[in-house]
Design a protein that fits this description.
heterodimer, A: alpha+beta, Ctag/Cox11 (Pfam 04442), 2 domains, five-stranded mixed sheet, four-stranded antiparallel sheet, 2 helices, 9 strands, 29% helix, 34% strand, flat, B: mainly alpha, Cytochrome C Oxidase, Chain A, 17 helices
Chain lengths: 196, 539
């Protein structure tokens, strides 16, 4: 009986160890979903993440199918800017490079750095849309009251399905200063209240 | 068979060795019955507290316009009501029932890991102290909804940190409880009890425990990312830094959908114990019940994005999640039909536990049907975030999970306390609750279909009548649960002595020990009498 009790105890501890291991692995799985999610979005173009398409590689042009590209710009409520496209839509030939510009104006009395995040709708069109040059590739600094032209150069792949006639390129500008400020606060372990 | 344990042996040879004093008896206890009681008392306290928050919500919604509370406080109420009810009432109540009943049902002397069992309970009061303390802080309690979606949740001031650490502690508690259940069931069964001899309550809990271990860590990971986004400038869910708020929704519902089955599978187990007892017939389709439970658990992992139809998804994704979700109706239907078939031509009587179980079968099915409606991606866009979803999940959680728990409490309370509850009061409680709960939640279907959004303290005047009706039902239902506390209190304090068998012909090892169940049962680890078990000899 004593022997038996010891076996039961050992087996209990074995199950405990396996359970703890499984839980730790599942935490890891949860974090692994983050890069996995990005990879899936990149491959499928879900969430409007745009494709990578080098302009040099595109030689053919699909002239019998044109696509209307609409431009949209919004500003996150944290950013005291105005931001809008100069041209609201454009008819493009797939396979050809196009250029357009947005205009941003810093309405505040301070220098502010912003970061634009692009998105393309419908999601299934996004992998056929590629920007060769964009203000969203880097952060943008506007001094107090400064107005700035923001250029984009893009190309729509000739492989784009025929049933897509219209696609929308949309940008949201976020306040980059806010993030750096928070980073510093966190780094200095300061107890100051962070207003969000 | 010399090791067979009869109740006489237990009654005479082993006296109760209950430790004396509060600290030794309750704080340091490793006894599965004491810990089960602690869990159940804690769950009941949280049920009343969460219910009080629901009363505040229904009070504000009694009439259109803002009468009693600020919108921000209303948002705190909806958020905290959900967190308290899910993590404080329903889940601990099931763990309490598991603690009390699983060892008794499989002939084990205690849970497999008694010290960890103590720890997993005593974490909970601290977790909830932390969560509830946010009410007294600047900015108040979390108000962004129990789903904790960023970026809204990040705007809550410093309650974010308290919320995240409270969720971590609840998660650790649940995971330890789940590991304990698995170890007990796999390793502590009496030597002659096979897996397919186990009562269905034990089976459903085994499957639930695996679900808990699989998903609670994912929730812990997701809320940790919220924490670092808030305080350490990471950008998991921050679009400006290259993150994506939709990612949180995927992570959350990867936890959240199995979670809803965590809250219902043990209730399936409870009614599968009760219906055969009062129909006086063995459970119809025992093996199919086990497989149906396992199938539901498996499917729960591959349907999460049906909570996100309106977020935007390609057509293929919507179709997949729609069909996969509707497939869950199949194993659930198997269970419903098995319960009905168990009652078919049975010699049924309608004691209080049976009434709650029958109401469970009917009302849970209503919640199941509205669930199938919402699984349809095209119509879900209309129902999303309206009172229709509120009606749906309250039918499955209140008249489902909570009804299952109350049925189980009436069924096993005589075994725990040694006293019969008052059948007359139990029936009053049942009819009072069942009428009022339908007055409370049924009109919310109509409100939702007509377009009333959830989580809003005010509404336009065409919704006034149904809201008033719903509030009146709510107050009546709330009062009925205070009455329930009185019934439980009265039964524990005294009353007619319960027999060891309690219910005519009820099967299960729990009925072979005396009432009240002695402090130590099945101490001699040895074979049990399989004839006493519902499924001991059939398979």
């Amino acid at each position: 009986m004593q022997q038996n009790k010891q076996t039961v105890k050992n087996n209990n501890h074995k199950i405990l160890r396996r359970g703890v291991l499984a839980s730790v692995l599942m935490v890891g799985f949860g974090f692994a979903l983050v890069p996995l999610y990005d990879v899936i979005c990149d491959i499928t173009g879900l969430n409007g993440k745009t494709g990578v398409l080098a302009a040099e590689n595109v030689t053919e042009q699909n002239i019998d199918h044109t696509v209307v590209v609409q431009f949209d710009g919004t500003v996150n409520s944290d950013l005291p800017w105005s931001f809008k496209p100069e041209q609201f839509s454009m008819e493009v030939v797939p396979g050809k490079l196009y250029h357009t510009e947005y205009v941003a104006l810093n309405q505040s009395k301070a220098d502010v750095t912003g970061q634009a995040i692009p998105s393309v709708a419908p999601a299934k069109a996004s992998i056929y849309f590629s920007k060769t040059e964009c203000f969203c590739f880097t952060e943008q600094l506007l001094t107090a009251g400064e107005k700035k032209q923001m250029p984009v150069t893009f190309i729509v792949s000739p492989d784009i399905p025929k049933d897509i006639d219209v696609l929308t390129l949309s940008y949201t500008f976020f306040n980059k200063n806010r993030m750096t400020a928070e980073q510093q606060v966190a780094g200095n372990a300061s107890h100051e209240e962070i207003e969000i | 068979m010399s090791h067979d344990i009869t109740h006489n042996e237990i009654g005479h040879d082993h006296h109760d060795h209950k430790p004396k004093g509060f600290v030794k008896r309750w704080l340091m206890t490793t006894n599965h019955k004491d810990i089960g009681t602690l869990y159940l008392v804690f769950a009941l306290a949280m049920f009343i507290l969460g219910g009080a928050m629901a009363m505040v919500i229904r009070l504000e919604l009694f009439q259109p316009g803002l009468q009693f509370i600020e919108p921000h406080f209303f948002n705190q109420m909806t958020t905290m009501h959900a967190l308290v009810m899910i993590f404080g009432a329903v889940m601990p109540a099931f763990v309490g029932l598991a603690n009390w009943m699983i060892p008794l049902m499989i002939g084990a002397p205690d849970m497999a890991l008694p010290r960890m069992n103590n720890w997993s309970f005593w974490i909970l009061p601290f977790a909830f102290t932390m969560l509830l303390a946010t009410f007294f802080m600047d900015g108040g309690a979390p108000a962004g909804g129990w789903t904790m979606y960023p970026p809204l949740v990040l705007q809550g001031g410093h309650n974010v940190g308290f919320l995240v650490f409270a969720v971590h502690m609840m998660g650790i508690s649940s995971i330890m409880g789940a590991i304990n259940v698995i170890a007990t069931i796999m390793n502590m069964r009496a030597p002659n009890v096979g897996y397919l001899n186990m009562p269905l309550f034990v089976w459903t809990w085994l499957i639930t425990a695996f679900l808990l271990i699989a998903v609670m860590p994912v929730l812990a990971g997701a809320v940790t990312m919220v924490l670092t986004d808030r305080y350490f400038a990471t950008s998991f869910f921050n679009a400006a830094g290259g993150g994506d708020p939709v990612l949180f929704q995927h992570l959350f519902w990867f936890f959240g959908h199995p979670e809803v089955y965590i809250m219902i599978l043990p209730a399936f187990g409870i009614v599968s114990e009760i219906i055969p007892t009062f129909a006086r017939k063995p459970l119809f389709g025992y093996v199919s019940m086990v497989y149906a439970t396992a199938a539901i658990a498996f499917l729960s992992f591959i349907v999460w994005a049906h909570h996100m139809f309106s977020v935007g998804m390609p057509l293929g994704g919507e179709l997949y999640f729609m069909y996969a979700t509707m497939m869950i109706a199949v194993p659930t239907g198997v269970k419903i039909f098995n319960w009905v078939a168990t009652m078919w031509k049975g010699s049924m009587t309608f004691e209080t536990p049976m009434l709650w179980s029958l109401a469970f079968v009917v009302l849970f099915s209503i919640g199941g049907f509205s669930g199938v409606m919402m699984a349809l991606a095209p119509v879900d866009l209309q129902y999303h975030d309206t009172y229709f979803i509120v009606a749906h999940f309250h039918y499955v959680l209140v008249t489902g999970a909570v009804y299952g728990i109350i049925a189980g409490v009436y069924y096993w309370l005589p075994k725990w306390s040694g006293h019969m509850y008052s059948e007359r009061l139990g029936k009053i409680h049942f009819w009072w609750s069942t009428i009022s709960v339908n007055v409370l939640f049924f009109p919310q279907h109509f409100l939702g279909l007509a377009g009333m959004p959830r989580r809003i303290p005010d509404y336009s005047t065409q919704f006034a009548e149904f809201n008033m009706m719903s509030s009146i039902g709510g107050f009546a239902f709330g009062l009925a649960q205070v009455f329930f506390v009185y019934i439980v209190w009265k039964t524990v304090r005294g009353g007619e002595k319960a027999t060891d068998q309690v219910w005519d012909d009820a099967k299960g090892l729990e009925w072979t020990v005396p009432s009240p169940a002695p402090y130590h049962t099945f101490e001699e680890f040895g074979p049990v009498d399989l004839d006493k078990m519902a499924h001991g000899k059939i398979h």
